[in-house]
Amino acid sequence: MDDWMLIAFDSTQQALRAEMLLEFAEIEIDLFPTPKEITAGCALCIQFPKEDLERVKQIIRNEFVEIRGLYFKTADSYDNIPM
């Protein structure tokens, strides 16, 4: 699995809530420090496989999770994608 997406947050509470919801949906995730290239109010972000993007978006919308943005991780940067 080479293609990863990131979710950045403005609060730790929302990051931990999203972690719980995505794990409950059995989506493979990794919680780790937000890269310095992404400006966010929270020091945590969630990484997940690109193939789960639509499921992740649906969970974020349906559960009203507040996020800073969704990003596609490339070799040397993070590209913001529309929600």
What is the secondary structure topology, with strand pairs?
Blueprint: E1 4-8, H1 12-24, E2 30-33, E3 44-49, H2 53-62, E4 69-73, E5 78-81
Antiparallel strand pairs: 1-3, 1-4, 2-3, 4-5
What is the CATH third-level topology name?
Alpha-Beta Plaits
Q: Can you count the beta strands? A: 5
- The tally of structural domains comes to 1
Distance between the termini: 22 Å
Beta-strand portion reads 25-35%
Low-confidence stretches: none
Taken in chain order, the helices and strands follow as: EHEEHEE
Largest sheet features: 5 strands, antiparallel
Q: Give the second-level CATH assignment, the architecture.
A: 2-Layer Sandwich
Quickly name the level 1 CATH class.
Alpha Beta
Q: Portion of residues in helices?
A: 25-40%
Radius of gyration: 11 Å
Number of helices: 2
Structural category = alpha+beta
Mean pLDDT, to the nearest integer, reads 90
Q: Judging from the principal axes of the Cα atoms, what is the shape?
A: globular
Spatial order of the strands forming the largest sheet = 2-3-1-4-5
